[in-house]
Amino acid sequence: MTLEPFPEDIAPDKVAEAAAYRRALGAFATGVCVVTADTDAGPLGITVNSFTSVSLDPRLVLWCLDERSERWSVFAAAEHFAIHVLPAGDRDLAARFARGYCTLGEGEFTRTGDGPPGLPEALARFDCAAHERIQMGDHLMIVGRVERFTATEGQALTFYRGRYGAASTD
Fold first, then answer.
1. Nearest residue to 115 via CA among 76, 86, 143, 79
2. This model's pTM is above 0.85
3. Which of 98, 117, 122, 141 holds its CA 20 to 30 A away from the CA of 104?
4. Domains of the chain
5. What is the CA radius of gyration of the chain?
């Protein structure tokens, strides 16, 4: 096997440190979400595990968008989006929206009024209006004001040490 050389401006010890840091972050189990928004080409989705609640009053949530994402320009500018907490059985959906430019086809989403596209099987869904965008390092923090939400019972899809798993109330 042939390894590509390190870029001249990145020292090998920095590459190893970055990989070790990423592994350390993987020790924190997270939920898995798909964020959806409308584009000129149709509804678009992206898998994230950076979702968190910010405030109960007003209802604010946030998620983070990697500036290297192929979908950065769409989600960085989206005025409305929906965040979906995925059930444990949706590993394939999470993988599908993890990379590339992934649109939703007819029959794969629903709408509430003129809201953003929604995934029908989500454990929880938060329809949001963009509240604030904050650039931090190599990510954009996107704060959403929750306009509508729904929730149901079930096992949640999790991500831990690079692998999918499930969390339940049992």
1. 79
2. yes
3. 141
4. 31-161 (2.30.110.10)
5. 17
